[in-house]
Design brief:
The complex is a heterodimer. By secondary structure, chain A is an all-alpha fold. Chain A has one domain. Chain A is 73% helix and 1% strand. Chain A contains 20 helices and two strands. Chain A has a two-stranded antiparallel sheet. In chain A, strand 1 and strand 2 form a beta hairpin. By secondary structure, chain B is mainly alpha-helical. Chain B is built from seven helices and no strands. The chains are: A mainly alpha, B mainly alpha. At the A-B interface, helix 8, strand 2, helix 9, helix 17 and helix 18 of A face helix 2, helix 3, helix 4, helix 6 and helix 7 of B.
Chain lengths: 499, 170
């Protein structure tokens, strides 16, 4: 209990509150700007936070994560341009409501649902994280190896729509993590004579390249694309009638979002789409979805924000990212010298509670900031791209450079950016590569330790029932895309036969 | 698109085949590199050798890459959208020009120093992307790097390489 108060005390320090609010502001702005996203903003923010205390830095990023997810809904509702992928489903009903002149009401429902979803998931976060960490403490290297393999297999379903390409990208990420000195033998691998690579590839320039530079190259082809001007909006909090109407949807979607968030590698976008679909499935008037109804906003908004709290659970308790953005938060934790996983909560529990406090503050702050400044944030989309993206390049360059005051990292960033652009074009996701890069060292380390324990007899891995369980889950997640396609085809065939 | 109509009838997608060949070639090269790692000391004979894990990964990546050329056709046959979503549109020349410009800017960074590299990027990129409001370009191109340089050098205490003109902000 002492750790809880200590952690909350840290989050409520004046300096940290200021940083959390700054994180919320950046998050809402970035979320509102099409093309910019939470992972991109966190990648850019990482070098800035190196000089901050770890607690302050992570609190700021956690706040940005929460607010960025909500920020995307502002432009989704007002101009039908979701600022971030998790807000895509919000536009289905949000924009029709805005067109009917109910933009303020739509924004109010989005904010209300987001806050409830976010806060409910935090309750799960605070209860589940220590419990999961306690279980994970009993894991031996072989079980950790099986768990990371399961997490990597879940890559098959994140970002982009090709499981095969996600797995290849994840594999390349793991391969990149082998660059540098081999831990057990001290032999250098793939360093090509660059001393900068002897300790491995720095996460930050790769992250900035993959998220910021690749997006910059995409945006360079649409620099002259005009965005619609915003009409005046009077934002309003939802009425009691609206609250009653969407409350069930919000609760259901919060549960779905939290659960999806906890699953390794699944993120807010999947949660939002499931939240929307479930809201429609449970509705008495599903035919009205897409025409502009409050449930169509509440469903995805509660789910995508609930996923943020859920995604922090495996990130902090197991050191396995719950989403693409938490993969970056994990990278930030490692950069700040922490080893995320069960020992984090055992040795520095106050740190985890500080993050909880920061996310709670962020949820309240974006309700106030998001609603109060919705009109201004929507206008940010009018910043000419011809200045916005050069600005992003400037921050990317200086961010990558500032890590070790070396242009070597700027080269790494640029190469990662061009690689990311090519990958996106051919259907490979950036998030799987990042997760592979982050988890790679853990995979090799735990495999190596397991092999030592078992005298290099790999089949003895199956002596552990936990390993068998994780491998069974891995097999299921790898075959899931094939299984779900087969089920869909069978359902279609049955429907045709019935008609 | 004519190409997509053609690829629908084929089991092998030509672009994916080229990609697959590129990945397999890269895997072969990296495998060759693993053969040239330093000899392991006999002290570590009980540990996994340093090339073992990268090689395992290379086999997995190569196996997955072999499946890639068929993915498009399988998805289309299942009534899906195929893999040509983003590839339908050709890359506009501005993307290549932007990459080339960034490469040139970073290439001369050692010579120019950190601040002038940033200044060059901010002055060159907006006009390159079609911005013709020259006063705004000048204000942004000069103002933004100064703000960033001051922020990083004074607040975050980052060392700015001075370059040939000796601009270090310290």
């Amino acid at each position: 209990m002492e750790a809880v108060w200590e952690g909350l005390g840290l989050a409520f320090e004046l300096k940290n509150i200021a940083l959390i609010i700054m994180g919320v502001l950046i998050g809402v702005i970035v979320g509102a700007l099409p093309g910019l996203s939470s992972p991109l903003a966190i990648a850019l923010l990482l070098p800035f936070t190196i000089t901050l205390e770890p607690v302050s830095a992570i609190c700021m990023m956690a706040a940005l994560y929460c607010a960025g997810t909500f920020g995307g809904s502002i432009t989704a509702i007002l101009i039908n341009a979701p600022g971030a992928p998790p807000a895509v489903a919000t536009a289905f009903d949000g924009y029709p409501m805005a067109k009917r002149g109910e933009a303020g009401r739509a924004l109010g429902i989005a904010a209300f649902s987001s806050v409830i979803g976010g806060l409910l998931s935090l309750v799960v976060f605070i209860i589940a994280t220590p419990m999961l960490a306690k279980v994970a403490l009993s894991f031996r290297p072989q079980e950790y190896f099986a768990l990371t393999i399961f997490a990597l297999s879940m890559l098959a379903s994140i970002s982009g729509d090709s499981s095969l390409r996600n797995l290849i990208a994840g594999g390349v990420g793991v391969l990149l993590s082998t660059v540098g000195t081999h831990l057990s033998t001290g032999i250098e691998r793939f360093t090509f004579g660059f001393y900068e690579l002897s300790e491995g590839i720095e996460f930050v320039p790769v992250l900035i390249g993959l998220f910021a530079i690749s997006e910059l190259l995409v945006q360079s082809q649409a620099a002259d694309k005009a965005l619609e001007r915003i009409k005046s909006v009077v934002v309003q909090l939802p009425s009691m009638a609206d609250v009653r109407r969407v409350f069930g949807t919000v609760l259901r979607s919060s549960g779905i979002g939290t659960f999806i968030g906890i699953l390794p590698a699944e993120g807010s976008t999947v949660a939002a789409i499931l939240g929307y679909n479930e809201a429609k499935r449970w509705s008495k008037t599903p035919e009205k979805f897409g025409t502009g109804i409050p449930e169509g906003i509440a469903g995805p908004e509660a789910a995508n924000n609930a996923a943020t709290g859920g995604a922090m659970v495996p990130t902090l308790a197991l050191g396995i990212p719950g989403s693409g953005t938490t993969a970056l938060i994990l990278a930030a934790l490692i950069t700040h010298g922490f080893r995320p996983g069960p020992y984090l909560i055992k040795e520095t529990p106050e740190f985890v509670y500080a993050i909880f406090g920061a996310m709670a503050i962020a949820n309240i702050a974006f309700l106030v900031i998001g609603l109060g400044g919705a009109k201004i944030f929507a206008r940010i989309t009018l910043i000419p791209r011809t200045f916005l993206w050069p600005m992003v390049f400037g921050f990317s360059m200086i961010g990558a450079y500032s890590l070790s005051a070396s242009f070597f990292d700027v080269w790494v960033m640029l190469i990662a950016g061009v690689l990311g652009f090519i990958m996106r074009r051919h259907g490979f996701g950036a998030a799987p590569l990042v997760m592979g890069l982050i988890l790679g060292r853990m995979v090799e380390e735990t495999l190596s330790q397991s092999m030592t324990v078992y005298d290099n007899q790999w089949w003895r891995l199956f002596e552990s029932p936990i390993v068998c369980g994780f491998f069974a889950l891995t097999a299921l997640s790898l075959s899931w895309p094939v299984l779900s396609a087969w089920r869909a085809r069978r359902a279609k065939r049955k429907a045709i036969e019935a008609s | 698109m004519e190409t997509s109509a053609v690829t629908k009838r084929r089991w092998v997608h030509p672009v994916d085949l080229a990609l697959s060949v590129a990945i397999l070639s890269a895997c072969a090269y990296v495998y060759y590199l693993t053969a040239n790692f330093e000899e392991m000391s006999p002290l570590f004979v009980d540990n996994l050798p340093p090339q073992w894990f990268p090689r395992l990964l290379l086999w997995v990546i190569a196996f997955l890459a072999l499946l890639m050329p068929f993915e498009h056709a399988v998805r289309v046959a299942r009534g899906g959208s195929g893999m040509d979503g983003e590839r339908k549109n050709t890359v506009k020349p501005i993307a290549y020009i932007t990459v080339a410009t960034m490469l040139v800017i970073v290439s001369v960074s050692q010579l120019l120093g950190t601040f002038l590299t940033l200044l060059a990027a901010c002055l060159v990129l907006p006009p390159l992307w079609g911005e013709r409001r020259w006063r705004l370009v000048a204000a942004f191109g000069i103002g933004f790097p100064i703000v960033v340089a001051l922020l990083f050098s004074q607040v975050f205490k980052i060392y700015f390489q001075p370059g040939i003109f000796g601009l270090s902000f310290h």
